[in-house]
Design goal:
The protein has about 160 residues and is an all-alpha fold. The chain has a single domain, classed as Tetracycline Repressor, domain 2. Helices cover about 70% and strands about 0% of the residues. It has eight helices and no strands.
Length: about 160
């Protein structure tokens, strides 16, 4: 905020409440990961590019700039079921699921959405576990195995 010449009050006035700020942070965290991966991908390769980028060792090792789902889901689970933070999280997750499902193979929209929900939750879990592994080579191998698994799973 200092670099932007904003006070705390000036910053927070841009949002109606903390939950709105939280939702915007979630949205931007996802946008930093999803949009560039899809934009760089060749037509028809968007999903593979997204899996590659998400399960990349640099993404894994950069917790501060990484996926907010992997970083926050376990903490949000401790909040009351209908808290504003959880509601915002679920809303953003549904938005991103619909966005990614456009690239998912499947005969129906419901099948694409189902597969996308499982892909997203599985990759977030994979990233969370990989970040705990102390040895970088083990993290790389773990992420590589997961990429292969998810490539195969989404193309069934």
């Amino acid at each position: 905020m200092r670099d932007l010449h904003l006070t705390h009050g000036g910053f927070y006035r841009h949002f109606a409440n903390k939950e709105e700020l939280f939702a915007e942070a979630l949205r931007q965290g996802h946008d930093r990961m999803i949009a560039p991966a899809i934009a760089r991908a060749p037509k028809g390769g968007e999903l593979k590019a997204l899996i590659d980028a998400y399960l990349d060792i640099e993404h894994c090792d950069n917790v501060a700039e990484g996926c907010p789902v992997a970083a926050l889901a376990t903490e949000l689970a401790r909040r009351p079921p209908h808290s504003r933070a959880r509601t915002a999280f679920e809303r953003i997750l549904r938005e991103r699921t619909r966005e990614i499902a456009k690239y998912m193979p499947g005969a129906t929209e419901e099948e694409r959405l189902r597969k996308t929900r499982m892909l997203m939750s599985g990759m977030a879990g994979t990233l969370t576990v990989a970040r705990v592994l102390g040895d970088k080579q083990r993290r790389v191998r773990f992420l590589s195995d997961a990429k292969k698994f998810y490539f195969d799973a989404v193309n069934r």
